[in-house]
DNA sequence: GCGATTGA
DNA sequence: TCAATCGC
């Protein structure tokens, strides 16, 4: 960069933010966006440019100039301005707030003024400040401002424009540049110019006549006649172009230099922003920061003084070695001071968790309950993991380390050093921050009245576990291994050679190359030919192998995913203890892992075989309670659709009712086939399926599927209206909400790519339904758990499977428990349609499903 | 539609 | 990491 020699005082850098937004849009071909759908090309290019500027030039004074949304004086002065300046593409508009945020986080002063474009602000400052000025821009619109005191630097082309350089490059001095461009025009800028006049001719004309006015005043002197004719035809366009190029130098901007001093960057904010924008490389380049959160001391026992503080960060993990469960590593912290208790007992943790006198801030409360061996009834607990999840349930990482880095800018030390104390310190600081954010988002009641107390219920469910019949499972495993061996031999015989029949690649070689069967669709990534159920079932007519393979797959899945893990994970009493992940889904549902007990087969032979393995204690039974059609009922409630609400109010078979509606027949005339189709549509609706998904599910073509959906919406107009309203609301607010005000951000509604946008729309529609279902069953779990304990019953919750609760109940308590469960579940929350619960019980889960 | 798990 | 398959 060549710095201006004229001018007084330090150099001032004026950045034309808008020009970079456009430049980035056209400069990089491949699309760039976050995993959640925000296009980031422009922010990325801009950020890289700004970081480079700050690092290489180290400016003391600079200002980022941006446009405002409001129309400028150009709109007001010229009717046809808008016609010549199409609005900024939506893809770019959504990035503008982030550009502002990046600059703010970097401490760069920002200037924007209603009624003025960035160019006008820069022109005003360039003309009125006495300092040397470098305009940092990604286009040439501002070349006319170049002088001995004002240079223009294009960091993307690495080029400095001095007056000499402008003259050399364009053949006209900077002050004549607007005249020059008024003649040549600029298609990328929608500047018409004079048709047929190129740069050479324009420069020659201006050199000969001096200005645009002069050229037209002495038009008859222009030679050759061809150019004269072009000029005469393009007169209007030329003067319009010039008017559009005129800059205001009288914008009311502060002229005191100190307004434009670069401030200290807010690294914490910048880091959070880069993480959100998924700028991984840039994130790694940020200066490492190790904030000291406070002093850490190691103590033998919990100091008394901690209990007199107002708030405590509380962190614990299992101890080392043989006594990991009895001797915990535990740390507590008040602001600025942490105590590490090397060998605390679960009793210590229990006391702290149960001590309602002060706020205890923890990370993953349910895990602490397990360490404490109990969930004491208490007030004043705050779980930052739950809080962070409620604030944004779409993130993937809710680790304490991640939260500390994001909100406190602190990289926590490893656990063999000061790490334990720092974790407690981080919690003490995160507590008020996240509490405030939760309250501000209206998520307080959901956190403190639902999710936090639910942690205790889930802890008890996990600890009790589910009993499995190990003898039965062992026999089943043996039988399955036997059958798999036979199937394997048979498949090798049919294939004519042995191969790895669990490998899709090898299977597709056998099927499509060796046996010459017709290839079907590709795998989702398009790299291989698919061998999924759909393809294999279709091939079953032509060859016996596919059918055998499908059976092999089903049996193998049963053995390796269900039977073997259950045997492995069962404890000495034959009980398996799943872990419910309370922060694992974007919709608010729970998930279950090690083992996942929420996807135990239910249909077909496999379902029966495996569910018979889940049994009750001697003298107890399993009681299953599932919400009937909870999602469609919620759809009826939200949409207020009369037709749908009536069907539920009258206790009708909802799939049959839907079939009658869309086929225009009376309920009696509904055939099983019609009902099946209606059922798929109803399910599709609840899961946010597209017409495309529906067509695949039903094996019909897209047009037909569309017609079915259209027919549905005609019969249930309230549903259509509600869907449109939800999408509109998501567009306006950026998120959707559930019955209990749970939130989920919906990015991508403004995406230019149709698939991305439609995906976002489906998410926006599906989440309130699925998420409210989660709200209701969580509320019901709290109520059922509370009632059972209040009434002194031994019956207990053991599993939750999204719309089903599974309880283990002493035989003599069955009747009373059934009444309680039905009452609490059906009356969980008043909706405009009734909630219905199906109850079933038996010695095992298969019987309890009947 | 979402999430968990298995196996190459 | 991807493909396939289970549940809701």
From TrEMBL:
InterPro entries: 5-3_exonucl_a-hlix_arch_N, 5-3_exonuclease, 5-3_exonuclease_C_sf, DNA-dir_DNA_pol_A_CS, DNA-dir_DNA_pol_A_palm_dom, DNA/RNA_pol_sf, DNA_polI_H3TH, DNA_polymerase_1. Residues 9-263 form the 5'-3' exonuclease domain. Keywords: Coiled coil, DNA damage, DNA repair, DNA replication, DNA-binding, DNA-directed DNA polymerase, Exonuclease, Hydrolase, Nuclease, Nucleotidyltransferase, Transferase. Residues 607-813 form the DNA-directed DNA polymerase family A palm domain. GO terms for biological process: DNA-templated DNA replication; double-strand break repair. Transmembrane segments: none annotated. Its EC number is 2.7.7.7. Residues 470-497 form a coiled coil. GO terms for molecular function: 5'-3' exonuclease activity; DNA binding; DNA-directed DNA polymerase activity. It is an enzyme of class 2 (transferase). It catalyses: DNA(n) + a 2'-deoxyribonucleoside 5'-triphosphate = DNA(n+1) + diphosphate. In addition to polymerase activity, this DNA polymerase exhibits 5'-3' exonuclease activity. Belongs to the DNA polymerase type-A family. This is DNA polymerase I. The gene is polA.
């Amino acid at each position: 960069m060549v710095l201006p020699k004229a001018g007084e005082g330090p150099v001032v850098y004026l950045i034309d933010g808008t020009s970079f937004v456009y430049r980035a849009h056209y400069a990089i071909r491949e699309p760039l966006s976050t995993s959640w759908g925000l296009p980031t090309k422009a922010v990325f290019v801009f950020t890289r440019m700004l970081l480079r500027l700050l690092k290489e030039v180290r400016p003391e004074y600079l200002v980022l100039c941006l446009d405002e949304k409001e129309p400028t004086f150009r709109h007001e002065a010229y009717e046809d301005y808008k016609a010549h300046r199409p609005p900024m593409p939506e893809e770019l508009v959504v990035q503008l707030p982030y550009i502002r945020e990046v600059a703010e986080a970097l401490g760069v002063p920002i200037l924007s003024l209603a009624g003025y474009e960035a160019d006008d602000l820069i022109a005003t400052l360039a003309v009125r400040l006495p300092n040397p000025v470098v305009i940092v821009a990604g286009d040439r619109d501002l070349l006319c401002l170049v002088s001995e005191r004002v240079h223009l630097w294009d960091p993307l082309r690495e080029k400095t424009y001095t007056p000499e350089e402008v003259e050399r490059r364009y053949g006209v001095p900077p002050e004549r540049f607007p005249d020059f461009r008024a003649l040549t025009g600029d298609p990328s800028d929608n500047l018409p110019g004079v048709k047929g006049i190129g740069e050479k001719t324009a420069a020659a004309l201006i050199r000969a006549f001096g200005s645009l006015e002069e050229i037209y005043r002495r038009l008859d002197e222009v030679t050759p006649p061809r150019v004269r004719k072009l000029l005469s035809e393009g007169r209007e366009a030329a003067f319009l172009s010039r008017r559009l190029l005129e800059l205001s130098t009288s914008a009311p901007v502060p002229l005191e230099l100190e307004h434009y001093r670069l401030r200290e960057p807010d690294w914490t904010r910048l880091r959070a922003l880069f993480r959100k924008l998924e700028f991984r490389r840039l994130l790694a380049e940020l200066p490492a920061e190790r904030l000291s959160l406070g002093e850490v001391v190691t103590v033998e026992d919990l100091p008394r003084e901690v209990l007199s503080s107002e708030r405590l960060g509380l962190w614990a993990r299992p101890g080392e070695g043989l006594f990991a469960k009895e001797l915990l590593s535990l740390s507590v912290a008040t602001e600025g001071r942490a105590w590490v208790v090397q060998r605390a007992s679960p009793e210590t943790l229990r006391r702290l968790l149960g001590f309602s006198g002060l706020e205890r801030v923890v990370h993953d409360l349910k895990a602490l309950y397990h360490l404490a061996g109990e969930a004491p009834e208490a007030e004043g607990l705050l779980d930052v993991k739950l809080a962070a999840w409620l604030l944004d349930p779409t993130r993937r990482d809710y680790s304490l380390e991640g939260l500390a880095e994001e909100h406190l800018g602190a990289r926590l030390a490893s656990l063999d050093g000061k790490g334990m104390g720092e974790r407690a310190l981080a919690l003490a600081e995160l507590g008020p921050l996240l509490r405030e954010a939760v309250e501000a988002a209206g998520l307080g009641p959901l956190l403190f009245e639902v999710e936090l107390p639910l942690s205790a219920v889930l802890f008890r469910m996990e600890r009790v576990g589910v009993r499995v019949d190990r003898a039965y499972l062992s026999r089943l495993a043996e039988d399955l291994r036997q059958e798999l061996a036979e199937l394997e031999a048979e498949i090798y015989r049919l294939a004519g050679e042995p191969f790895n029949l669990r490998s899709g690649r090898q299977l597709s070689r056998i099927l499509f190359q060796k046996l010459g069967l017709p290839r079907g669709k590709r795998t989702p990534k398009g790299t291989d030919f698919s061998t999924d159920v759909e393809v294999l079932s279709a091939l079953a007519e032509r060859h016996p192998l596919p059918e055998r393979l499908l059976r092999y797959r089903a049996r193998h899945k049963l053995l390796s995913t269900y039977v073997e893990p259950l045997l492995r994970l069962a404890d000495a009493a034959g009980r398996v203890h799943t872990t419910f992940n309370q922060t694992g889904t974007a919709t608010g549902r729970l998930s279950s892992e090690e083992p996942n007990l929420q996807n135990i087969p239910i249909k077909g032979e496999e379902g029966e075989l495996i569910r018979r393995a889940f049994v009750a204690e001697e003298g107890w039974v399993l009681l299953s309670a599932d919400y009937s059609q909870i999602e469609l009922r919620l759809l009826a409630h939200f949409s207020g659709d009369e037709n749908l609400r009536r069907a539920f109010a009258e206790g009708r078979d909802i799939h049959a009712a839907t079939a009658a509606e869309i086929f225009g027949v009376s309920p009696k005339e509904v055939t099983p086939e019609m009902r099946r189709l209606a059922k798929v549509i109803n399910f599709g609706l609840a899961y946010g399926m597209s017409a495309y998904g529906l067509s695949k599910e039903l094996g019909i073509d897209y047009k037909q599927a569309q017609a079915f959906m259209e027919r549905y919406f005609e019969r249930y107009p309230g549903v259509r209206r509600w869907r449109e309203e939800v999408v509109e609301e998501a567009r306006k607010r950026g998120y959707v909400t559930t019955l209990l005000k749970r939130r989920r951000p919906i990015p991508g509604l403004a995406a230019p790519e149709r698939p991305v946008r439609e995906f976002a729309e489906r998410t926006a529609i599906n989440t309130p339904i699925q998420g409210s279902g989660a709200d209701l069953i969580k509320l019901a779990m709290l109520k059922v758990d509370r009632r059972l304990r209040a009434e002194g019953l031994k019956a207990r919750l053991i599993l939750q499977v999204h719309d089903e609760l599974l309880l283990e109940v002493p035989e003599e308590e069955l009747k009373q428990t059934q009444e309680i469960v039905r009452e609490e579940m059906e009356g969980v929350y008043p909706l405009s349609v009734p909630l219905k619960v199906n109850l079933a019980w038996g010695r095992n889960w298969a019987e309890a499903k009947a």
